[in-house]
Specification:
The protein is of the alpha/beta class. It contains 10 helices and 15 strands. 30% of the residues lie in helices and 18% in strands. Helix 4 crosses helix 8.
């Protein structure tokens, strides 16, 4: 079976996606799709599973802002064997919690063989604030973004970091919070993810290198009423391991196309939740004639369907059906021929 196509798997962050709206719960989808394409491109929201991760050799870990630039044709992706990852820690993290995250970084060097530079603590607390829209989507703000950027600049120029992992202090939702309870029970929006996207976007936009974020949080009180989809966040105090693993092999972002790089012209498929089709990357690729596959059962808080934007898309019920579409098209089998009724040919 042909396996030389390129697919982009999108699950926008902070919109309460039924699949991919939790810590790493879209990894099985990525694993499945990666088996039927030559290259799978996706973003940290899909592959970050707190303390859990899964290596996939043909899968590229690309931050959201970089995905937008890639889809527009401004940037290209160049695979690497390894990145030197710089660790940037928020000065607002308490000493004990900061030490624990340093120990996670040391463990990743000793047990996974990752290449990390010396770490740096920001010169000011970053002070992250969280917000939620009327639709339920989450986002956030950074009170001291200049401190974030100064820290990243030092890691790049003094420690030769090729990718940046950021750990910032978030204020915990109280255990009785309805937002937190809903999320832990598998029916809510991740209140942190929108702010996490803002943090990584700032670094990638300024420096043009891979970046991803892990929140520093104290462990939540033990509960027996936890959804399996949210359980990855219950197994420890750190979200850092999957971020370090992802960044260690994240592709470089280059502005001049090279023979061994991937451009937006190489993308054959975009797989997206059917109700979340308003993103810049998807719109850019749809305008280039890329096949858009819209998955209906991955419900989100958004209501931006492809038809409302004039985007031609193949609607499917599930990711299993989406994989069937990719396999059928790559094998040259008409999708209509797989249905019980086939329309007659008409004369022109």
């Amino acid at each position: 079976m042909p396996k030389d196509s390129t697919a982009l798997l999108l699950v926008p962050t902070g919109i309460g996606a039924a699949i991919g709206g939790y810590a790493g719960d879209a990894i099985p989808v990525a694993k499945l799709i990666s088996q039927v394409v030559g290259t799978l491109i996706t973003h940290p929201n899909v592959l970050n599973g707190a303390g859990l991760y899964w290596p996939m050799d043909n899968t590229l870990y690309v931050e959201g802002y970089a995905l937008d630039q890639f889809a527009k044709g401004n940037w290209h992706l160049q695979s690497v064997n390894s990145n030197r990852v710089g660790l940037l820690l928020d000065k607002g993290i308490e000493p004990d919690l900061l030490l624990r995250h340093l120990q996670v970084a040391e463990a990743s060097r000793a047990t996974l063989g990752l290449d990390l530079s010396d770490y740096l603590v920001t010169d000011e607390p970053l002070e992250i604030t969280l917000q939620t829209s009327a639709s339920g989507a989450s986002w956030g703000n950074i009170t001291n973004p200049s401190s974030l950027l100064r820290g990243a600049d030092k890691l790049i120029n003094l420690a030769q970091a090729q990718a940046i992992a950021v750990v910032t202090r978030f204020l915990e939702e109280p255990p009785e919070s309805i937002v937190l309870q809903n999320y832990r029970q598998g029916c809510g929006v991740d209140p942190l993810s929108g702010a996490e996207a803002v943090i990584s976007h700032l670094i990638v936009q300024r420096f043009g290198i891979p970046a991803a974020h892990a929140p520093a949080l104290n462990p939540l009180p033990l509960s027996q009423d936890i959804s399996p989809k949210a359980a990855a966040e219950e197994i420890g105090y750190t979200f850092l391991p999957s971020v370090l693993v992802g960044l260690s092999r994240a592709p470089r972002y280059i502005t001049k196309y090279q023979s061994n790089s991937i451009s937006s012209d190489d993308v054959d498929y975009v797989i997206t939740p059917a109700s979340a089709c308003g993103g810049s990357a998807l719109i850019s690729l749809a305008s280039k004639g890329v096949t858009i596959i819209a998955v209906e059962e991955n419900h989100t808080q958004m209501r931006v369907f492809p038809e409302s934007l004039g985007i031609k898309a193949i609607r499917v019920k599930s990711y299993l059906e989406a994989v069937g579409v990719i396999v059928s098209k790559d094998c040259g089998i008409s999708l209509e021929s797989l249905r019980p009724n086939i329309s007659r040919l008409e004369g022109l």
